[in-house]
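FAQ: What does a ligand-bound record look like?

Like this one, built around flavin-adenine dinucleotide:
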Amino acid sequence: MNKHFDVAVIGGGAGGLFFTAQAANKHKNLKIAVIEKNQRVGKKLLVTGNGRCNLTNLYANESDYHGSFAPFIKNVLASCSTQRLLELFADMGLITRADDFGRVYPKSNQASSVLDVLRFNCDKDNVHFLCENKAYKVVKENNFFKITTDKESITADKVIFSSGGAAAPKAGGDKYGYELLKSLGHTIITPSPALCPINVKSEYIKSLKGIRVQGEISLISGNKTISTETGEIQFTENALSGICVFNLSQYVEKDKDYTLRIKLMPETEFSEIIDILSNNQRVFGKLDAENIMTGIFHKRIAQALIKSARISFDKKVKDLTEREIKTLAKLINNFDFNISGLADFNNAQLTKGGVKGDEINPDTMESKKIKGLYIIGEAIDCNGDCGGYNLHFAFATGYIAAIGL
Ligand SMILES: Cc1cc2nc3c(=O)[nH]c(=O)nc-3n(C[C@H](O)[C@H](O)[C@H](O)COP(=O)(O)OP(=O)(O)OC[C@H]3O[C@@H](n4cnc5c(N)ncnc54)[C@H](O)[C@@H]3O)c2cc1C
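The answer part, i.e. the structure of the complex:
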């Protein structure tokens, strides 16, 4: 095989495959190589959305994205809105459905449908898959790029960098792509885990393991509330987890002190909580203190609140003082956990950081530093919230690069 290609795509994940499917269809004479380090392309796609692949969101807008590329997200959404993306997928043969939160999934509810549709649309004579090939050196020589993998060396007129981020290494996540981009002259905003559980220091977190509550959770630094989310909050052995917490994890910076504050009854006024507890004091009077929250919370949450209020477990509900009831009522909407750090890349869905946003032309995804080099997807310093925004970004930037070639 002639080892010179018109385009070399580094990384056969969401963005790389979407780019290839679109480019191969639009530019039929283009000879494209997809270089993928895994045995197969699209491994990470299969684990997305708990195996269902939440591929976009009906309500995607600028405020769902963060990082140095965020100011340019409007260009991306203008070129490839949710509606446009769904039309493109429909043309490629994928039928989708949306849930009440606007999260779009394949109608089959299987991530493998998305991957198969992308793979089959890439299955053209002009596309060559080079799997089990890890790109470890990329240089621009005169008018073409030389890409050295652990197996071979190829040249290409243009390179699409779709090597993703460092999250979920078992599914292909790899920091090395950032090194390659750095060696090409790009500034890399330090990669760190995002959309991940947040570790907490707490005397009762272990006892809450496995419990899920509906509530409101805020990330607080000093007196400032940085962001607030509502929904299901999950307790693990040493961390808080769930979509709400994942979204908050994007704001956590290294070596800073934060508190996570849970409102267990966010819609209930303090005075109303007092009324509820007072009623329970009457009903459950003979029982031990924690039972004042019988019928409201999981038993272990009630125990943690009693402990936090420094109330003796032996005390009877009827003997709780007015002050103790007020303390409990306050704690119910100020259930605080000090943060000890973030989970690692193994437990993260995304990488925060990557190529600095203003080094890329958002209308073509071409590098402003190196002509013919295009950067798409998670390799860019752009992190979206949970809900399909990150796959949208990978697909949309792949599409923009394909039409701009
Ligand atoms: C568990 C999990 C669940 C998720 N669920 C969702 C969801 O439901 N919705 C959503 O929007 N987002 C979700 N995400 C995030 C989403 O998967 C990513 O943002 C998206 O896949 C990024 O696309 P990409 O093409 O940039 O990178 P990837 O899809 O990660 O593709 C990068 C590819 O490049 C390959 N590669 C890397 N380095 C090299 C190299 N040097 N040489 C050759 N190949 C290389 C990798 O093996 C990989 O195949 C989830 C992530 C995880 C981990």
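Follow-up question: can I read anything off the structure? Yes, for example: The chain is about 30% helix and 25% strand.
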